[in-house]
Amino acid sequence: MKSFIIILVCFTTLYSFGNETIDYKVYFKDEIVDATKYIKCNNKIIIQSCKKYNHIKNEVVAIIYPELLRYNYLKDFFETSGLELVYVNYGSEAADFSVGHFQMKPSFIEQLEKYSRSHSKIGKKYKQLFINHKLNSKEKRKIIVKRLKNIYWQLAYLHTFIDICFDKFPMIQKEKKVNQIHFIAACYNNGFNFSFNNLKNRSVLKIFPFGTQYNGNQFCYADLSCAYYNQKVNK
Predict the structure, then answer these.
(1) 228 burial type by CB count under 10 A (0-12 exposed, 13-18 middle, 19+ buried)
(2) Per-residue pLDDT tens for 61-105?
(3) Burial class for 141, CB neighbours closer than 10 Å (0-12, 13-18, 19+)
(4) Which class for 164: exposed (0-12), middle (13-18), buried (19 or more C-beta within 10 A)?
(5) For the purposes of burial, counting CB atoms within 10 Å of the CB of 39, is it exposed (0-12), middle (13-18) or buried (19 or more)?
(6) Degrees (nearest 5) of the Cα angle 103, 181, 68?
(7) For residues 25 and 104, what is the distance between their CA atoms, to the nearest angstrom?
(8) Which of 13-17, 117-121, 145-149, 178-182 has the lowest mean pLDDT?
């Protein structure tokens, strides 16, 4: 925890906004370049997954786009191998950490499977994600860590998450597409276990990328997702 605080201090020093509002394209200038390269490099894989699960590419990418930006300046500072070992042995309560470009946590994957198993509509569509129930907890956690490092599994979990949001919050189905993305992005950033009203309130918070403990100006995660989506559809 001490090392994490030191790193966070370094980041807030390097990326401090002061009292000025900075356009995200300026603030994330280098990260946008890296994120664009990543999306282009994996374009075929992303399109294939969207066809498989019946989702639209620009909508899917928009939801995790802010995470691609965050990943590109955190990747050189965090080594998760020690945390992975703690998680495998003791579970997400002992160690829960973000992995890969989509910055998914083990607890997030556990929640997705739990929801899918208890909701037949989701479970039927994503049954291949279920981990063999005969395996012990340690073996299951090893599989989760391995999957989180693979883009095919990351995308499969992302599609699962999107369908869970529509299943749990059916009221968003009648919303405009950009409003749907705004809400689902907020769910991705905060977790889908909150109530609809709670998530709506959280969806406008400007606490990205440093979280609630940082006092400087920041961005709204869901706004960044919508900015990416609008840029793509208005080309």
Answers:
(1) buried
(2) 999 999 999 887 666 455 677 788 888 988 888 888 888 899 999
(3) buried
(4) buried
(5) middle
(6) 25
(7) 24
(8) 13-17
